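HUMAN: Can I see a protein plus its fold?

ASSISTANT:
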Amino acid sequence: MTDVTYTGTGLIKALRDGWIITQRDLLHWVRQPATPIFGVMFSIMLLLMFGFLFGGAIEVPGGGSYIQFLLPGMLALTMMFGLDETMTAISSDAKKGITSRFRSLPIGSTAVVLGRSGADMAYSALNLGVLVVGGLLIGWRITSDLGSAALAVVLLLWLRFALLWVGIFLGLTLRNAGATTAVQVLIWPLGFLSNVFVAPETMPGWLGAAAQWNPISATATAARELFGNPTGATGGWLADHALTMALLWPLAITAIFLPLSARAYRKLRS
């Protein structure tokens, strides 16, 4: 397989090749829509469950409606959903020999993983849009200006983009059913050990500190601020630097796992 140096026309070629592979992955979802549909339905179910079953018993530090507090957190949490499916799709392509066919084509090693991430980002944007509409229907409101709200959406997708490279890397290196199950199990503790559902100030000291340093917490807090919703944080370092951390955490994750994914793909053996 040709390895393209991504300068000038090489970068354009990589992006074009990646777009072709993105279309291929999107076509799979069009033909088999059950997975994306059930994924969206699951996110809506969680929103309704926590918003209406538990919301009446949860107070937001600093005041404010729990629905207003919950919705941006749920948007951040859903950016973690589907990583196991990304991992499974990458592994499946390798096992079926599809990866070997891609490797025989004159395309750069990054184009294939970029294509997969492009398809997942399209799905994530759709999931995000459905949840925003669902939130508006149950009483959530954006009280900031349009520019701030748009920046909040960008930060949410920025987090998703970074996390996708973790799923792609694991799919290229851990190609067995047990590894997929392990990722599914880990997603929930990492997602719940955050400020998505409750403020860290209500947790025991050591647990609250761990929750504050979770990348999901940084994006959730930044999104709440940008949407004009209550943050549930009455003080602390995260409350003062949420926007900065929402930018830096995904940057660090991408800087680590994107090159690792490209390297793992170059070394992949079906």
Remarks:
- The longest helix spans residues 237-266.
- Residues 9-52+65-266 form one domain.
- The CA atoms of residues 192 and 268 lie 33 Å apart.
